[in-house]
């Protein structure tokens, strides 16, 4: 049997490398990689540092991480010392993980870099997606009324994707973006309709004479072949339907060059683990107090201020008022064992037989990284305690209208929230028996949408918990300050989903025979 060489993959707008991680982790047999990342391009400083580190590690045979990397995670050596130990691998990473903005000012340079890294290979894949903030529902709501909104350059970065296609004509590409793209409009026109049309004939979209090449576009989740008049929702992929423990809905468009008569397979649905099955075995920690001195005793004293009798009175008439008050009374009857704000104790692998856990767990890890809580205002601690207890009793996260008046935030629009007009789910508990809600970059802000289900921990999710819900391996280290780490995790493609997509793309390339 002839051994197949790894297909090159070019990853643009790469972020911390979720798509690339999924593609590079796909194996033929036990050790042969299906893909090798020849170039990943990212503009953000900290995401690029994360990307650089992962490219460095991928240079080791069989993806076997060196012992020195674990010493770096343990803090016994610096990253510079790690790189100095393996200059050849670091040199390769310098050439494949590139920090550069993709736009008009760098088009010639990007074209040259990609061309040199592909080395005239004919069978390869282009993956990635332009930054999504301008298309996201949250981003659009914040920019509403801004006269510069429709001129925001981020609306048009997808055209840079077209230019790379036209420069290199990949046999297959995967373009990813947020669900909000389905309804985003510029000058009254749906952006997604323009993108679908332009991806089919990228030269015409850029005002160039056509050479006859174009792309047939396919969905990863639906049978119908998309066309110009098709419902763009065909491209929507619901990650929780494919084993990801998170209700993350994103658009994925697969393009196959029209001289290759191959229809890609679809993703195969399978059940995901629950949130508790993924993060429940991580060490228990507590949040901190953001204002004033902080200690376990002061933290617990602030939470103890939640009065179950007052809550019962204020929720008078509510179906679960008595049960919620009783639950809070039991939870707050005695403090938990003294908790720290972080833990490096790496737990044993959960016993659940699921591929996601096989992807996440690393038995060689000496320490758990990025499992550190952030601090919250004392008033928010009490809201978190109530919200988690409410969820434990009712099986759902409370809306603002469910909060007792004594725990409502002092915001101008709180009454609109209570009436369900806006931000009614300002405080959202992640429910243990379900996949999590979408882990977004907003998790880097205040954590209110990502409250841990355990009332006695009274906190938002840590970077490591968010990374697990995104199916990043526990040995995947995010560089930069904690806020940037949250941001990187929230913007990434889940590697477990990416690996399934990679298998579909590898099958297309395997069946394609000789291509130009």
SSE topology sketch:
Layout: E1 7-12, H1 18-24, E2 27-28, E3 32-33, E4 35-42, H2 45-57, H3 67-74, H4 79-85, H5 87-96, E5 97-99, H6 107-118, E6 125-128, H7 137-143, H8 158-168, E7 172-178, E8 185-186, E9 189-190, H9 191-200, H10 202-205, E10 215-218, E11 236-238, E12 249-257, H11 275-279, E13 288-289, H12 296-304, H13 308-314, H14 321-331, H15 355-360, E14 375-376, H16 378-394, H17 414-418, H18 463-469, H19 482-491, H20 495-511
A few lines on this structure:
The chain has 20 helices and 14 strands. The protein is α/β, with parallel strands linked by helices and 516 residues long.
Tell me about the biggest sheet?
8 strands, mixed
> What value does the Rg take, in angstroms?
24 Å
Approximate helicity band: 25-40%
Low-confidence stretches: 136-145
Average the pLDDT over all residues and give the rounded result. Answer: 89
Distance between the amino and carboxyl termini: 24 Å
For the secondary structure, the number of strands is: 14
* Secondary structure tally, helices: 20
Q: What coarse outline follows from CA principal-axis ratios?
A: globular
The secondary structure category is alpha/beta
Residues in β-strands, percent: 5-15%
Which keywords apply here?
14 strands, 516 residues, alpha/beta, two-stranded antiparallel ribbon, 20 helices
